[in-house]
Amino acid sequence: MITEQGSIRVNGRDVDLPTDSRVSLLDLLRETLHLYGTKKGCNQGACGACTVLVNGTRVLSCLALAVQQQGREVTTIEGLCEGGGLHPLQSAFIEHDGFQCGYCTPGQICSAVGMVAELKRGLPSHVTADLLQEAITPSRDEICERMSGNLCRCGAHNGIIQAITETYQLGAGN
After folding, report:
1. Fold of 88-169
2. Residue 85: strand, helix, or coil
3. In the prediction, which pLDDT does 38 show?
4. SS3 sequence, 8-33?
5. Averaged pLDDT score across all residues of the chain
6. Mean pLDDT by 10-residue block, N- to C-terminus, for the chain (174 residues)?
7. Where in the chain are the domains?
8. 87 φ, ψ to 5°?
9. Which stretch of DSSP H or E encloses residue 64?
10. Which residues contact residue 139 at a Cβ distance below 8 angstroms, ignoring those fewer than 6 apart?
């Protein structure tokens, strides 16, 4: 299970991959790089707390092996900050009480950023009404469907959806 060591970029910084090919991306982020924003929830891909962006696409880091990410760009919640300030979606979560305990918040935010990229690419979801339209308007139902893989057990769901809706209607979270 030992592999030749490669590297990935995590939040703009080159990082050596572990030599043990069994290490998950989540464990690399938390245990080796000490990036504790990415949470270990179910560790089975069911809750979304570990969601990060790999080359701009949302990935459940508990299900991805670190070595599979060689040569790719990984962005965690810590990497979304720009110029020392909060990402617009992080600010919206605060404004709309989109968190209570905050455990799922990093995964929710990373997932929402990835979701917007999917919308821009025209990727439909289960509830997309018109599969032939060029641009998908993120209605409440569309956002809820696309975010359904990220669970909030504290009841902040309405605040989360409001934060996402407001941020992307204003075009601030691009």
Report:
1. DNA polymerase; domain 1 (1.10.150)
2. strand
3. 97
4. EEECCEEEECCCECCCEHHHHHHHHC
5. 91
6. 78 96 98 97 96 98 98 97 88 92 94 91 87 80 93 91 88 60
7. 7-80, 88-169
8. -65, 145
9. none
10. none
Distance from C-alpha of 117 to C-alpha of 120, rounded to nearest angstrom = 5
Q: Are 163 and 96 in contact (CB under 8 A)?
A: yes
Residue ranges with strand state E in the chain: 7-10, 13-16, 51-54, 57-60, 73-75
Give me Rg for the CA atoms of the chain.
16
Per the structure block, which two tokens stand in for 156? 């902040």
Note the pLDDT tens digit of each residue in 100-122. 888 999 999 999 999 988 988 88
pTM of the model: 0.91
CATH topology of domain 7-80: Ubiquitin-like (UB roll) (3.10.20)
Contacts of 26 (CB under 8 A, 6+ apart): 38, 40, 43, 50, 61, 62, 64
